[in-house]
Design a protein that fits this description.
Elements lengths: L1 H30 L1 H4 L3 E2 L2 E2 H31 L6
Antiparallel strand pairs: 1-2
Helix pairs in contact: 1-3
Length: 82
């Protein structure tokens, strides 16, 4: 039963990261580009910025967030490497 809970938490975390990544890359970079272009960020339109650079930055942040959370989940379920 403990193993099932571990995988449920792992899959919930993966699902959350994928939803955020989809929202930022597809939602902000493609679907919402016109409303976001009304806002300027660093001299560029915000929709363009998300499509070109913002989604990459968010992806990198998600990688570190995932690693940090998985370390905590591993320790919680006593499957960490230490």
């Amino acid at each position: 039963m403990k193993k099932l809970t571990y995988w449920q938490e792992n899959l919930r975390l993966v699902g959350l990261c994928l939803c955020i990544w989809f929202l930022v890359s597809f939602g902000f970079g493609i679907l919402l580009v016109e409303p976001l272009n009304a806002i300027s960020f660093g001299g560029f339109k915000l929709g363009f910025w998300f499509a070109q650079q913002g989604s990459i930055y968010v992806f990198l942040i998600l990688i570190f967030f995932y690693a940090w959370r998985m370390n905590a989940i591993d320790k919680k379920h006593d499957v960490d490497e230490n």
